[in-house]
Amino acid sequence: MAIRITKDADLTHLNTLGLPAVTSYLVEIFSINDLHELSREGFFEKENPFILGGGSNILFKKNLSRPVLKISIPGISVTEEDDDTALIESGAGENWHNLVFRTVDYHYGGIENLALIPGTVGAAPIQNIGAYGVELEQVFESLHCFDLRDHSEKIYRHSDCGFGYRDSIFKRELKDRVIITKVFLRLKKKNHTPNTSYHALATYLENRKITSPTIRDVYEAVVAIRRSKLPDPVLLGNAGSFFKNPVVEKSVHQRICIDYPDIPSYPVADGSIKIPAGWLIEKAGWKGKKVGNVGTYSNQALVIVNHGGATGDEIYQYAMRIRESVKNMFGVELVPEVNIVE
Ligand code: EPU
Q1: Does 237-341 match 4-71 at the fold level?
Q2: 131 C-beta closer than 6 A to ligand 1
Q3: Which of 117, 223, 302, 338 to mutate to test the pocket of ligand 1 (most atoms within 8 A of CB)?
Q4: Where exactly are the structural domains of the chain?
Q5: Which CATH class is domain 76-188?
Q6: Is 37 a catalytic residue?
Q7: How far is the CA of 302 from the centre of ligand 1 (A)?
Q8: Cβ of residue 283 lying under 6 Å from some atom of ligand 1
Q9: Catalytic site includes residue 241
Q10: Active site residue 157
Q11: Of 29, 153, 264, 271, which residue has the fewest beta carbons closer than 10 angstroms?
């Protein structure tokens, strides 16, 4: 497919918050060759494009002053296999959930806990997507990208990516510097041990008397849990968790425990404690609240929703009010997980 260019493009349907934003032009590419072609035409010298995948983790505060480059590179295949594992190659533009669905159909294990995460495959490594006890980095092998600094193709292996909790080198040092074109994941064909460590998942399976869950059982459980807790962006605009779960020092956790002994918390390797932001936001009185066109989801306070007609700035102001009240109440600073585009 040839490069597709749309002038004065409306991005409302290209971001899951459903925010109205216009860009002077939208360039959609379907292969790495398209990137080379843009490079030959001097596009990257003239412009500093905003790179868009599935638009599921983005808040457009206003219209964009730069062109948008939408990465729609397709293709899912098995590139290498041995007795126990399969190496899956996916174009960056593939829908993440479609990839999960396909691998579960093949009985390949490793990403079934990551079902229904919105967005594209190319965006997955950027924030090291994670859910229900699994993070992308556990199956990630490598990725190919187009380096905007020298217009060459490069390969990043796992150890090059600096993965952390909802974090990687692509969010930090390499932000806006590379375009991910292909991702390789190593999945299990045999002897896969499903990860059912996450409380909600274990409870769901126990209630159904599933004691030795298959890959499909876990997939179906995750789909059901997510559907019950998280709004479908097609029906109600949202970008998943708006904030990261804050990691605080033990002393801060102990101080909060005095007034709130029921605070859920998860110890992290270095002795700090991770607190669910959703719990803090709910305690601060925001769960299910609505101000104008913006609200907090009734089943999960960590998700900010667009009830229809909200602007990016409205969502941003609402999020900042949440942040302020959590800070005043608990002395904990929430950091947005969503990428805020000025
Ligand atoms: N909680 C509340 N009130 C709420 C929401 C949560 O009290 O309104 C408390 C509950 O005690 C619950 C705990 O927080 O047991 C954890 O909640 P949940 O299992 O829903 O997970 P989370 O920590 O809120 C994280 C991810 C989600 C991911 C789920 C499941 C982050 C920022 N979010 O949410 O990821 O689906 O775990 O693994 O790490 C996303 O990144 O967009 C996303 C949805």
Answers
A1: no
A2: yes
A3: 302
A4: 4-71, 76-188, 237-341
A5: alpha beta
A6: no
A7: 7
A8: no
A9: yes
A10: no
A11: 271
| CATH entry 3.40.1080.10 includes domain 237-341 | no
Determine whether the shortest distance from the Cβ of 50 to ligand 1 is under 6 A.
no
Tokens of 333: 């600073």
Q: pTM to 2 decimals? A: 0.95
One digit per residue, pLDDT tens: the chain, 342 residues? 799 999 999 999 999 999 999 999 999 999 999 999 999 999 999 999 999 999 999 999 999 999 999 999 999 999 999 999 999 999 999 999 999 999 999 999 999 999 999 999 999 999 999 999 999 999 999 999 999 999 999 999 999 999 999 999 999 999 999 999 999 999 999 999 999 999 999 999 999 999 999 999 999 999 999 999 999 999 999 999 999 999 999 999 999 999 999 999 998 888 899 999 999 999 999 999 999 999 999 999 999 999 999 999 999 999 999 999 999 999 999 999 999 998
Tell me which architecture the domain covering 4-71 has in CATH: 2-Layer Sandwich (3.30)
